[in-house]
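Q: What would this complex look like in 3D?
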Amino acid sequence: MIEILSASALATVQDLGRTGALRWGVGTSGAMDPLALAAGNILLGNDEGAAAVEVPVFPFQVRFAQDCAFAVTGADVAARLDDEPLLPWWSTLARAGQVLQLGLPQGGTWRASRAYLCVAGGIDVPPALGSRSTQLRGAFGGHEGRALRQGDSLRVGAASDARCGKGIGLVPPALALPLQLDDLPAIRVLPAAQYTNYTEASRATFWSEPWKITAQSDRYGYRLSGTRLEAVSALEMRSHGIVPGVIQVPPGGQPIVQMRDAQPSGGYPKLGTVIEADLWRLGQAPIGGRVRFVETNWDDAMAALAQTRRWLDEVRRLVELQRSQRGGR
Amino acid sequence: MTISNSDRVRQLVDWLSETDIARLELRGPGESICLQREGGRIVVAPDEPALATEDAPSVAATAASVGVFLHRHPLRDAAIAETGTAVRCGQIVGLLQIGALLLPVTSPCDGVVAAMLLEHGATAGYGERLVELHPLPAGA
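A: Here is my prediction, written as structure tokens for the whole assembly.
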């Protein structure tokens, strides 16, 4: 068991998401940075999709009620186990009674906003519709269908390999698969159905100017601010299916990017869609920060997804090789 | 595994003769071997005394694997263990990077970090001395 000591809200149990349930009107949920979650699980010998705790507000504290290998990935949050400072993207063995503290996200070489606490065996909450992710809108999945509270206890699943989690780490994908434009995080976008309904000047603005992530941004969606996007003509649309990554433009001309807790339908015109391979980059971009959008096409979007897959496969190969060598001694 | 086992040496010589590699050095715990090409033949070169690590006066954290030696974590600007800081036995004083993987370089004793023996970003050989430490007496 791990016990939540912090009163800070908004930490949730997440896995890689509840796919295949949109037809019932159930959104995807899942980690805002699925690469960080998958990589943390690989470090611990878990399935990539084992459930972990996503932490967006700091400081955050948990106490381990049992010996437990864990990894903290995502933002560098200057983690400490009791008094011992830990490296980011690192796996460690906690002893029963030890307290893990996650501090404020550090500047460093990658400015990110969410940390993932992965544990060997995964967070053991009952799956709902095939996923352990918290579905906040529907109040199911995760831990009692809600964000974690002070005093909550989470069960830890049985670990596949007791040797896991003995002090190895990873170079984060933000450094291994960097994507920046004018020193800002860059996000690749496919033009969507109503793209041509925006003036040529607005389309050019969308690709060439930075977009600020406003304080009205969360797991549901990121509301951006920048130069107003002008439609050629007002569009009246019926609600239609949408997925995480869809960029809608409400009448005010300030875009909204749907994120993991997006509802499954919406009626605003769609300017573009953030490609699946880059959703983690946006999911880690902090409120108040700025991002750039880069136009891409289907083939390049698929190639980007294959590239992240190759990175994860290589990470698993290296971690397993290391584990077999240590186990053999 | 014993590197200097004669069957293994013969195997290495066979492999090397198929390549255009001029010189091969292998180092393992407490031993090393060097093979080099002389004319058309591969011969065992004499040990270079400079490579011996056994008689070194100070204590050092060594490389448990081949890798790229890092003074600081790739996400951070500060060194993991600055020269002059006190460290405990087993504490991480540097990193070895192998592709995406980071392995710890740990202090073999309670001590004070005296010097980084390899540049940040330099390639480390197996067993290479990476961080020099002045040991502190037990219980200090």
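A: To summarize the key features: The interface with chain B takes residues 76, 87-90, 106, 108-110, 167-172, 175-176, 311, 314-315, 318-319, 322 of chain A (CB under 8 Å). The mean pLDDT of chain A is 94.
Q: Very helpful, thank you.
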